[in-house]
Amino acid sequence: MQFRVLLARANRLFRAMRQEFAKPDDAWAAAYLPEPELRIYTSMDARDREHATRVAKRLLQLKPDSSQILIRAALLHDCGKQVRPYRWTERVWAGLQPIRHLDFETTMQKKQPLTALEVRALHPQLGAMLIRSGGGEARVAEIVDRHHHPLDDADAAWIHAVDELE
Question: What is the distance, to the nearest Å, from the Cα of residue 123 to the centroid of all Cα atoms in its chain?
Answer without folding.
Answer: 8
